[in-house]
């Protein structure tokens, strides 16, 4: 189960790198506007906020990626701690998103499913 959890955590991190790209690099593009449901005017007005938020997603992904590397290098406790910090924070952010607006529930599910599955698998892997 630990390997499955690490793979799911890695996929969650990759998704958060993509979210970083959409928010921090491509925020005003038609694809990002369609993804986040914003108009050109709204995207321009919120560009600096999205830029900052994208980096939060990138930093969470980096915690997971570094944890995977450290785990692979033989420091299981430190590696798993970093993976849990990254995925747990992703999961908490998805929960906040879900609770903030019913309209954002689908986005929260997309953002939070992989971290949730990763955390559950890792917990099972640690317990077994």
From TrEMBL:
It comes from the Bacteria. The keyword Heme does not apply. Keywords: Membrane, Transmembrane, Transmembrane helix. The keyword GTP-binding does not apply. The chain crosses the membrane at residues 6-23, 55-74, 80-99, 111-127. This is DUF1304 domain-containing protein. It comes from Brevibacterium permense.
